[in-house]
């Protein structure tokens, strides 16, 4: 009985191994085109943006993402949130396209916490933004990071909505500082 069981099991295993998978057109799966023409088209680099595409005039255009100059943070945090990454990327592209331009990042904190704590937190926030801009192509010589702590509030009320407005980095460009 045992030999019969082993023989049946072995035949089932071999039968399972010999089946062919269905063709891609039968499963609806897409097949990657790896012909030389397709590979060449895939490898063609995208041209970097020209200086005109990221001009300083865009900083004043309310329709441009570059007109937004603040990155906001959570309480006691200095990690740039995902929602601000497109804004940071746009400002990095502006710096890359205009190497003569300089940026000042002012790190801010809300009124809670000691003066020393808020100065340190504001500096960490400004340095986090600076590091990100450099990783995206900006030059270190273009960007200066400073902390204002709680000395430059955008809102002076004493509630969470107001405090959230004050936990930010502000980006200023040449001629604005």
What would your notes on this structure say?
There is one protein chain. By secondary structure, the chain is α+β, with helices and mostly antiparallel strands. It has a domain at 56-173: OmpA-like domain (60s Ribosomal Protein L30, Chain: A, 2-Layer Sandwich), CATH 3.30.1330. 39% of the residues lie in helices and 12% in strands. A four-stranded mixed sheet has the order 1-4-2-3. α4 packs across α5. The protein is extended. Residues 36-51 have low confidence and may be disordered.
Kindly provide the radius of gyration, computed on alpha-carbon positions and rounded to a whole number of angstroms: 28 Å
Element pattern in H and E = HHHEHEHEHE
Strand content: 5-15%
Largest sheet, in brief, is: 4 strands, mixed
Structural class: alpha+beta
Measured between the Cα atoms of the first and last residue, the distance is: 91 Å
Quick tags:
177 residues, alpha+beta, 60s Ribosomal Protein L30, Chain: A, 4 strands, 39% helix
Topology, element by element:
Blueprint: H1 2-17, H2 24-27, H3 36-43, E1 70-72, H4 85-97, E2 103-108, H5 115-135, E3 143-149, H6 160-166, E4 168-173
Parallel strand pairs: 2-3
Antiparallel strand pairs: 1-4, 2-4
Summary of the model, kept short:
The protein has helices at 2-17, 24-27, 36-43, 85-97, 115-135, 160-166, and strands at 70-72, 103-108, 143-149, 168-173. The chain has 177 residues and is α+β, with helices and mostly antiparallel strands.
């Amino acid at each position: 009985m045992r030999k019969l069981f082993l023989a049946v099991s072995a035949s089932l295993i071999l039968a399972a191994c010999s089946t062919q998978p269905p063709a891609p057109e039968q499963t609806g799966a897409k097949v990657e085109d790896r012909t030389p023409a397709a590979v060449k088209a895939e490898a063609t680099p995208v041209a970097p943006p020209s200086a005109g595409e990221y001009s300083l005039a865009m900083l004043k255009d309310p329709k441009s993402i570059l007109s937004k100059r603040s990155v906001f943070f959570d309480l006691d945090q200095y990690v740039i949130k995902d929602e601000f990454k497109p804004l940071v990327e746009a400002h990095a592209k502006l710096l890359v396209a205009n190497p003569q331009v300089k940026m000042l990042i002012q790190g801010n904190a809300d009124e809670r916490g000691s003066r020393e704590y808020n100065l340190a937190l504001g500096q960490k926030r400004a340095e986090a933004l600076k590091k990100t801009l450099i990783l995206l192509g900006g030059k270190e010589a273009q960007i200066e990071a400073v902390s204002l702590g709680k000395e430059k509030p955008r809102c002076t009320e004493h509630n969470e909505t107001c405090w959230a407005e004050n936990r930010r980095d502000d980006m200023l460009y040449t001629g604005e500082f």
